[in-house]
Amino acid sequence: MSEAIIIRRARPRDSPAIARLLRELGYPLAAGVVRRKVASLLQAASDQVLVAEQGAEVVGVIGFHLIPLLHRPGNAGRITVLVVTDKFRSRGIGTRLVEAAEDWAWSHDCALIEVTSREQRDRAHRFYRTCGYAAQDKRFVKRKS
Considering the domain 5-130 in this protein, what is its CATH number? Predict the structure, then answer.
């Protein structure tokens, strides 16, 4: 029988594994860059980075951020990244990561949680719907040139 999956707060030493997971999602960042980002996010009370670990292997990660709202009570929460390594997908790990982030969000006065996902990621869209998320509104983006 395989070891249990543990969901825990990320540590800077998880950065090489998180960088590998981000590459699987299409974001090729160097481990040093990821280490600095993780260390910074872990310092902020409004951010959370959680990993799924089996044995000594990090097999999934979720990044979550609180956004204070001006126009309504409470905060908005945003999932900015979620990835489970390919060989561990469809085992409930992504669901457990989302649930852990949601538990943290609800305990930090979130009124809503949002997630964005590229249009071509149909499997991810089905996953988020299964988790209770609904497509809503449009997102407009302007990138720094």
Answer: 3.40.630.30
